[in-house]
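Risk register update: the risk of archive-format incompatibility is retired. Evidence:
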Amino acid sequence: MYKTYTIVGLLAFIFFSSFSTNLECEHAGSNIDFARTQTEKALDIKDINKSRYYAYKALNAIEKSKKQLSSCGCEDANKGIAEGTSDLKHAIKAQSLGASQIFLERSLDLS
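Archived output:
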């Protein structure tokens, strides 16, 4: 009887623990997709303040998903996302719409 409970317990542990990283990766992927759509919206808008707003929303989504990305083991993706994050920060700080759009396009290409 003890062996049965032990085996069922181990199988349940393995079964439930195997999905935790997949869910984190899916959540991180959805955040990255959201950041991509917000970056595209920022590129389409011709007002610098609204463009900054959407770029900030994209940056915030990426910052929230960094923990999930590190647990997924996506090292190559983390490097591209770090460079894209840097470009988003520069786009938010840019003084003109043209400069902001250059950084937004670079960020979109890296993600």
